[in-house]
From TrEMBL:
Binds 1 [4Fe-4S] cluster. SMART domains: ENDO3c (SM00478), FES (SM00525). PANTHER family: A/G-SPECIFIC ADENINE GLYCOSYLASE/ENDONUCLEASE III, ENDONUCLEASE III. This is Endonuclease III. Its cofactor is [4Fe-4S] cluster. DNA repair enzyme that has both DNA N-glycosylase activity and AP-lyase activity. The DNA N-glycosylase activity releases various damaged pyrimidines from DNA by cleaving the N-glycosidic bond, leaving an AP (apurinic/apyrimidinic) site. The AP-lyase activity cleaves the phosphodiester bond 3' to the AP site by a beta-elimination, leaving a 3'-terminal unsaturated sugar and a product with a terminal 5'-phosphate. The gene is nth. InterPro entries: DNA_glycosylase, Endonuclease3_FeS-loop_motif, Endouclease-III_FeS-bd_BS, HhH-GPD_domain, HhH_base_excis_C, HhH_motif, Nth. It catalyses: 2'-deoxyribonucleotide-(2'-deoxyribose 5'-phosphate)-2'-deoxyribonucleotide-DNA = a 3'-end 2'-deoxyribonucleotide-(2,3-dehydro-2,3-deoxyribose 5'-phosphate)-DNA + a 5'-end 5'-phospho-2'-deoxyribonucleoside-DNA + H(+). It holds the Pfam family HHH. It comes from Sellimonas intestinalis. It comes from the Bacteria. Belongs to the Nth/MutY family.
């Protein structure tokens, strides 16, 4: 590991801790899969509000698979893009129910074969449920990894590959958890709080006036 990378990770460990946490509320693997699918273009806080009622109404993958499309659309409407999300949820949970006996698969290829499941969602499942070292590239990770010079790529899959080379495996999952906190509180997309940033000197976009 490069000295510079180690220094950045040490600061993140110190500032945000090394506890594994998930910001989406769930009790079972299929619930985390559904919540992660709903979190696309939506805040985790809003998803948690929606799934509180959703998971009481639909108590298994089979229940979602058998849901009425229009009714499910209304159930998840606050998460946005609800037409596509509802259609994908029903198709995904049908496969979970019929092909996998209500068990969420762990293999990347099987997960990404499910409707509405891309690498980001698959890696959330692999990391949180199966504890497979996985790099999750969300909007915070994409933005901040670029600012830190860990990647010059824009495509999430290429960013994922760059981070897998740059970061030690024991930080693959942890990095995402820390960067979400960092991105929400300090290194925001608009008006980042550069004056409060402990990684200022490592930031490729930092200017003398503290503007990015």
């Amino acid at each position: 590991m490069k000295k510079r990378t180690k220094e950045i990770l040490d600061i993140l460990d110190s500032q945000f801790g090394t506890e594994y946490k998930c910001y989406l509320n769930y009790e079972t693997p299929w619930q985390l899969l559904a919540a992660t699918m709903l979190s696309a273009q939506c805040t985790d806080a809003r998803v948690n509000i929606v799934t509180k009622d959703l998971f009481q109404k639909y108590t298994s993958p089979g229940a979602i698979a058998a849901a009425d499309l229009k009714e499910l659309e209304e159930d998840i409407r606050p998460t946005g893009f609800y037409h596509n999300k509802a259609k994908n949820l029903i198709a995904c949970m049908r496969d979970i129910h019929e092909k996998y006996g209500d068990e969420v698969p762990s293999a990347l290829e099987e997960l990404t074969s499910l409707a509405g499941v891309g690498r980001k969602t698959a890696n959330v499942i692999r990391g949180n449920i199966y504890h497979v070292p996985s790099v999750v590239v969300d909007t915070h990770v994409k933005r901040i990894s670029g600012r830190l010079g860990f990647t010059k790529q824009e495509d999430p899959e290429k960013i994922e590959r760059d981070l897998m080379k740059e970061l030690p495996k024991d930080h693959w999952i942890l990095y995402n958890i820390q960067i979400i906190q960092f991105g929400r509180t300090i290194c925001t997309a608009r008006n980042p709080k550069c004056g409060d940033c402990s990684l200022q000197k490592y930031c490729k976009e930092y200017k003398i006036k503290g503007k990015v």
